[in-house]
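Hi V.,

You were right to ask for the full record rather than a summary. Here it is.
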Amino acid sequence: MHKTFLFGLCLFCLGWQSHARETNSLNKVSYQAVLDLDYPSAEQVLNYGPSASQFIEGWLPGAQQYYGDIVFIHGGCWLSHYDIAHSRPFTAALRDAGFRVWSVEYRRTGDDEGGWPESFYDIHDAIQYLIKAKQIEPENTLLVGHSAGGHLGLLAAQKNANLKGIIGLAAIADLDTYARGENGCQQVTEQFMQGMPDENPDAYQNANPKSHPMHSNTHLIYSIDDTIVPVDQVNDLKGIQRVKVTDVGHFDFIHPGTTVWPVIIDTLKQALQKEHQ
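Predicted structure:
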């Protein structure tokens, strides 16, 4: 099943903001290409719970310009097979770009007590831990989530309106629709949710970002060429900023050498500059 994680449907949506390529040149990279990237160690590791999967890695910028804090949630179909390691080159690059990054590891399907709703509880608890420990100021902190991590980030932003905003990178925003799809990640939704939407409607209602009002500062970046998160994830979503990119694959979003990287950095800066509503 894990191999089929790399396949899915295409995306298309009219009326999104379009971005041209800038200085980066790579596109449609593989998951293995992300794993092959080098990265330094995180400067700080914080434990927000007793599980081996309940920790936060702190990536702290140096003397260059500091733009704000990011709480990052990695993806991987909510599966324990895909841990925080594959996102470290991305978080290290964000640190080098002038952001202080708090990357959250959390219990996932396959871990003891992983899955819904425990995976979401972990994200919420990690955010509250950072706030109470005075590591972040909510009004200067963005959530950023990739794929399944974007799903959890959207929910966490809805529950933590005092945060500056949320950036979804190919985020799963409509869980009900996603669970009915046929690619490998879509099929894993049933395992994560312990059932299909028709079998567990109350759980899907609670777990579906589309079922709740979005954070007032929500930016969703998608590619029409992403084969894992289809375009119907953003159908009929209201109160969000959509950003369209082209010729970008699902794993380009977490590879700092790809054409979408400057778009991500620009969107982060824009979201941090927005007046809090």
